[in-house]
């Protein structure tokens, strides 16, 4: 089953059986508003230079893009947080493809606004072999053009679920990154960008492999 098929199955169950209709309506309105804003089109795209950054992983160790790119290309996924089932399925799918990605000399990182403790929890829960870096306040997400503030009715809905992002993220902005996946070449230029304001839609990680193969000048077999 592809990643999108898994996501679609979860969405059908959540919206058709678990969530009351008013809850689904709030979620749909919020997603439609973010799509209508056009922010995804203004985010960094292929051909742009990726921002340099240095962020802590769950243990507090600082990871720098300059160090990663010195070794080879880099795959970055922006991750909303441990509370998001769609995002966790996305990380799990990337983990499934991780051996093939690394075989091409490519590093993988996830970036999230959540606290380091929540990143450690997400890494354990999803059994990840790659780090989740904490972008507290979303400054790196902002540099990529991905950070947005949740609509007020969605904030109230999240609070009613017990999902207080001011606690989860350790700061009060109620901002998140749009889900996005990037491939950065060793020269620091974005070779691939997928940004979607609808968090229920994600590309399959297998789509990265031909791009990474070409980026490394290898011959696909």
Structure description:
By secondary structure, this protein is of the alpha/beta class. The protein has a single domain (3-215), classed as Glutaredoxin, CATH 3.40.30. It is 45% helix and 17% strand. It has a five-stranded mixed sheet with strand order 5-4-3-8-9. Strand 3, helix 5 and strand 4 form a beta-alpha-beta unit. Helix 1 packs antiparallel against helix 5 (85-103).
Strand content: 15-25%
- Main sheet record: 5 strands, mixed
Unreliable runs, pLDDT <50, ≥5 residues?
none
Oligomer: single chain
**Please, what is the CATH homologous superfamily?**
Glutaredoxin
Mean pLDDT: 95
Question: What radius of gyration results from the CA coordinates?
Answer: 17 Å
Order of helices and strands: HHHEEHEHEHEHEHHEEEH
- Count of spatially separate domains: 1
| Secondary-structure content class | alpha/beta
**Termini Cα gap:** 24 Å
Number of helices: 10
What is the strand tally?
Answer: 9
Helix fraction by DSSP (H/I, runs of at least 4): 40-55%
At CATH level 3, the topology is Glutaredoxin
């Amino acid at each position: 089953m592809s990643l999108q098929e898994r996501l679609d199955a979860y969405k059908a169950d959540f919206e058709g059986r678990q969530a009351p209709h008013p809850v689904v309506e709030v979620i749909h309105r919020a997603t439609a508003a973010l799509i209508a804003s056009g922010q995804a089109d203004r985010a960094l795209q292929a051909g742009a230079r990726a921002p340099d950054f240095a962020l802590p992983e769950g243990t507090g160790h600082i990871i720098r893009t300059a160090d990663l790119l010195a070794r080879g290309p880099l795959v970055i996924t922006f991750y909303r947080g441990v509370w998001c089932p769609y995002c966790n399925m996305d990380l799990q799918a990337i983990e499934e493809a991780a051996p093939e990605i690394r075989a091409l000399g490519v590093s993988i990182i996830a970036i999230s606004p959540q606290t380091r403790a929540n990143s450690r929890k997400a890494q354990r829960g999803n059994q990840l072999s790659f780090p989740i870096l904490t972008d507290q306040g979303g400054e790196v997400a902002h540099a990529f053009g991905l950070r947005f503030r949740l609509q007020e009715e969605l904030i109230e809905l999240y609070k009613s679920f017990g999902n207080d992002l001011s606690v989860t993220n350790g700061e009060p902005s109620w901002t998140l990154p749009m889900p996005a996946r990037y491939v950065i070449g060793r020269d620091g230029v974005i070779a691939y960008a997928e940004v979607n304001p609808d968090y229920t839609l994600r590309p399959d990680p297998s789509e990265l492999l031909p791009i990474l193969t070409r980026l490394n000048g290898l011959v696909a077999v």
